[in-house]
Amino acid sequence: MSNPDGDSSPKVHVEPPPVEASAPRAAASGGIGGILRRWKREDLMKRGSLALRGIALLFSLISFVIIASNKHGDWREFDKYEEYRYLLAIAILSCLYTGAQAFRQIQELSTAKQFLQPRMAAMVDFFGDQIMAYLLISSASSAIPITNRMREGADNIFTDSSASAISLSIFAFFCLAVSALISGYKLSTQPYI
């Protein structure tokens, strides 16, 4: 066997790999798959935000009930201490805010209609969650020192109730802080801001 070039080495014919006909379909399904993943992510964020606000509502409501019923006579009444009155006021505000937000989100999920414009809803969610989270941690941190001082003198049902209300306010803060992170992400992905 001789080659036309005069070279005696054999020529090896290498064929390019066949182009699969499914490559264009894979690219097209990646676009649709990306859209579906985005919808699932947005739905997960909506439901997660609703769940976090619902849990924050529950914690705030229980904290409100505990601190409001913390009256045991003499010096063991919450309304004699401004720190506990502040804790109660913020627990009430947190209940109102998270209740209104949860109601709005449930209505939007069930009817598929926006109560507010998307831009306004994103801003209300973000700023409302942040303000309420900061108020919750502020009220809890103001009530902790007086509760610790009282517990040094006497550990009784009044201080235990106060500590549990403070703990629930802190848990509500964590829920709203995570909800604020989700709201911040939703606000940052708005195309028209």
From TrEMBL:
Residues 1-26 are annotated as: Disordered. It comes from the Eukaryota. Keywords: Cell membrane, Membrane, Transmembrane, Transmembrane helix. The keyword Cytoplasm does not apply. It is a multi-pass membrane protein. Residues 45-175 form the Casparian strip membrane protein domain. It is found in: Cell membrane. The chain crosses the membrane at residues 50-69, 84-103, 124-146, 166-185. Its main location: membrane. GO terms for cellular component: plasma membrane. The keyword Heme does not apply. Homodimer and heterodimers. Belongs to the Casparian strip membrane proteins (CASP) family. This is CASP-like protein. It comes from Cajanus cajan (Pigeon pea). The lineage of its organism: Eukaryota, Viridiplantae, Streptophyta, Embryophyta, Tracheophyta.
